[in-house]
Amino acid sequence: MSSLYEEVHSAPSSDIPVRQVTVNVNGESRTANVEPRLLLAHLLRQAFKLTGTHTGCDTTNCGACTILFDGRPIKSCTMLAVQADGHSVQTVEGLASASELHPLQEGFKQEHALQCGFCTPGMMMAAKALLEENLNPTEDEIRWALSGNLCRCTGYQNIVKAVLWAAEKMRAELN
Amino acid sequence: MYPSRFKYESPNTVEEAIKLLDAGKGEAKILAGGQSLVPMLKLRFAFPEQVVDINNIPGLDYIRFDADGTLHIGALVRHEHLEKSLEISKRQPTIAAAAPLVADPIVRTRGTFVGSVCHADPQGDWAATMIALNGSIIVQGPKGKRTIAMKDFVLGPYANSMNYNEIAIEAVIPAPQGVARGGYLKLERRVGDFATASVAVALDMKGDVVVGAGFALAGVGGKTIDANEAASALLGQKLTEATIAKAAAIVAAKAEPRTDHRGSAEYKRHIVETFVKRILVANSTQKVA
Question: Options 3.10.20.30, 3.30.470.20, 3.30.365.10, 3.30.1050.10; which CATH number does A2-94 get?
Fold first, then answer.
């Protein structure tokens, strides 16, 4: 499988070799041939067809492309695909199991935390990173943790409620 | 958006990285956290022939205090490492105060302290912090290492004094004679926006007496502003209402703000003066208003 910027009629240059990268994506090893300038967000969307990761602003502001890279949240439009070689990433597709929603997904549903839904994958991945460190966050801590993710619909109120909902459920599941 | 084409290497040693930079003859760029470089590649403000990714070089992610209190920050220390470091929160208040204010929480997991200083953005929090702390940068090139003091490191907006075949491997912050105090305040319209005004204050105190002080500003001029001359108002003295007011006035006079959509020049200068006062008051043991 290859991922190049072919759709813009930009074939790779002969003096810049295409590189093979192997990335653990949501627990599964995936391989692709990429040109060095390919962004990680585009590798996920174009080569691996994981279109849950959105690209919004393309300038490291909006956080719609947030994924977990070796467990930490990053903006995948701001990392090269070649940099992910040998690393593991988790995308929004990795949250739910075949039969069950992740508590964050359930919380977003219960609290009506999305309208257009464009920012939602990034919001949930940023929230997941928070809950992995702190399963009992205050409202303030949630707002702080999500301050790199923009939402133009909700006014954030219900997103914060959804994360509180998920945290409570995850705490209950631990007991 | 996608960058223009470049060759990519990810060496495993500093020496290999230097060879690649040397061979690039100025057309190679170092990629550390990439939180400034990758957006610039996409916007095609930067179009290097070669990108040298240093993330696979082991041993560059240290935060270390020497026995005498000198602080060393390696080239791959991310903003969030500083934000979460207990040692930093106990011993280096200016850095501890600035770390949570850099960009946004997700950028902070990737972006590096040293990379941000090298990038020399006039809005950059770390270049200002390093100037206030009288820090220096250790760079390594084909001929070995050299140390560049911060006052000689930032030449202007997005310009530093490294040669094309050198790599910044460490930031060094000198040990205080007494106790390191200080702070950092930034006014931004929203998280991640460019600052309206930022103020870095570093103090070195023996009891109530200031034995060292540094001041620098970001966002209020075409480059990072060195306002260290305001130390003259404090050295050998206590932080009183009078000495604080004097220092704050000197710092505010050094600002070079311009009126724009973030506020008028007058407003920004007022913010600078207010922020200096707030940080100094917070570090004073005297009762000052």
Answer: 3.10.20.30
